[in-house]
Amino acid sequence: MKNTRALWMLAVSALIGIVVVVMAASRVMPQSASTSKVVVAAVDLELGSKLLPQMLQVIDWPQGSTPAGTYSELKDLQDRVLKTSVQRGEAILNSKLAPVGSAGGLSAVIADGKRAMAVRVNDVVGVAGFALPGNYVDILVNARQETGKGAETKPITKTVLENVLVLAVAQEAGRDDTKPKLVNAVTLELTPAEAEKIDLARNIGTLSLVLRNQVDKASVVTPGATSTALFAEEPVQLALDKPALRELPRPRLATVSPPPKKDCIEVIQNGTRGLSCF
């Protein structure tokens, strides 16, 4: 009797387990089947790259989490150009592509209305190699400014442009590397008016780059630094190691009054002279 009850309990437990597995499978099956085809990068791709079929692959992507602007077929991306870097396995989005018909290379990543201009730099001007593609810099010029008094000029350093995007350093435009690179040229993204300023500035003086925080977009207007302003401040009076000697006041001498004047007579007594005063 006890064995029969135990067998019935085992049978019921097994039946319940089977029902649970079937219900779980019925819930998982529709979700796994609800996918869509998405084109992703098969290898790491740099900005300016022209897309070819061997660079891409199509994978199944959960339909509920598919990003906006994806592509499902490789033919839709034939010869399109990337304007940002894309990592392996990352979906190719329309927002990461240059307009249809764009040629590959740096020209594809230049924003509308902007121009790319190269500036010669060295290890100092180039912020020790830390001015990398994707960073923002301010540009300073050191030149001689006319004072308005004949042909007299004075040296001045002035910020001529702020918040300028670095497109490339030397011949490299990749933005994923953070290691400093010492190069002899930096390519900047400028408006036509800004390009004119830089061309004039580098012909009348020397340029310097100042690296700035990428989230700091505030503009600061400065009058520029001149030698007159640089040395105009009062020199700082340094404290002596020993305290300075203080001149002590001279003691005042007491005034001695002369003795009062007395009446005196000469007295001769027994052949001896004497003076008697009263």
Describe this structure in words.
With 278 residues, the chain is of the alpha+beta class. Among the domains are: 35-107, Type Iii Antifreeze Protein Isoform Hplc 12, CATH 3.90.1210; 112-230, no CATH class. The chain is 18% helix and 27% strand. The strands form three sheets. Strands 3, 4, 5, 6, 7 and 8 form a six-stranded antiparallel beta sheet that branches. It has a two-stranded antiparallel ribbon with strand order 1-2. It has a two-stranded antiparallel sheet with strand order 9-10. The radius of gyration is 46 Å and the shape is elongated.
Key phrases:
alpha+beta, Type Iii Antifreeze Protein Isoform Hplc 12, two-stranded antiparallel sheet, 6-stranded antiparallel sheet, 278 residues
Radius of gyration: 46 Å
- The percent range for helix content is 10-25%
The largest sheet, given as strand count, sense and whether it forms a barrel, is:
6 strands, antiparallel
Q: How much of the sequence is in beta strands?
A: 25-35%
Shape: elongated
Please report the number of helical segments: 3
Derived from helix and strand composition plus strand pairing, the structural class reads alpha+beta
User: How far do the termini sit from each other?
Assistant: 163 Å
Output mean pLDDT.
78
Oligomer: single chain
Spans where pLDDT lies below 50 across 5 or more residues: none
Number of strands: 10
Q: Helix and strand string, N-terminal first?
A: HEEEEEEHEEHEE
